[in-house]
Amino acid sequence: MGRSLPCCCPSLIPSRETAHFYLLCVLIALYMLAGAAIFSSLERPAEIRAHRLWERRLKKFSHDYNVSCEELKSLLLYYEEARTAGIWTDRSRALWDVPGAFYFVGTVVSTIGKSMEKVIRSVQEQ
Question: Transmembrane as a keyword (predicted)?
């Protein structure tokens, strides 16, 4: 009556530490989902209002300057691509001047340096 089921794969039974790890992963995922839901419910209405305001401004500009909305949106898309590529309309300062490049290099070196230290330590410990 008190038969236990034989298990042909004891390696499939997680250890206590592994079970705790899985539980922690699930709890973190649930925490993140709850945070995302709260953040979305708080921020989404403001985003919708801002989008409506943007659309009204586009239509007004289009009407005031006799430019089609499609042409205006096309121009703004080009502008957005240029900004993403680092092109500024203000030519007073270049994106890759010496101070900007120095800051970038410092950020890369400090970030990679810390990561490499951890990798080297973990390899040396093995």
Answer: yes
CA dist., res. 102 & res. 85, Å (int): 19
Instruction: Provide the residue type at 119 as one letter.
Output: V
For residue 78, being part of any structural domain is answered with no
| Alpha-helix runs per DSSP H in 10-68 | 16-64
Cα–Cα dist 13/40, whole Å? 38
Residue 21 domain-assigned (yes or no): no
DSSP letter for 1, please.
-
CA torsion through residues 36, 84, 74, 62, sign: positive
Burial class of residue 62, CB neighbours in 10 A (0-12, 13-18, 19+): middle
**Nearest one of 91, 58, 63, 95 to 75, comparing CA atoms:** 58
pLDDT tens digits, residue range 68-115? Answer: 999 999 999 999 998 888 787 777 777 778 888 898 888 888 877 666
Assess if residue 115 is contained within a domain. Answer: yes
pTM: 0.51
For the chain, what is the domain count? 1
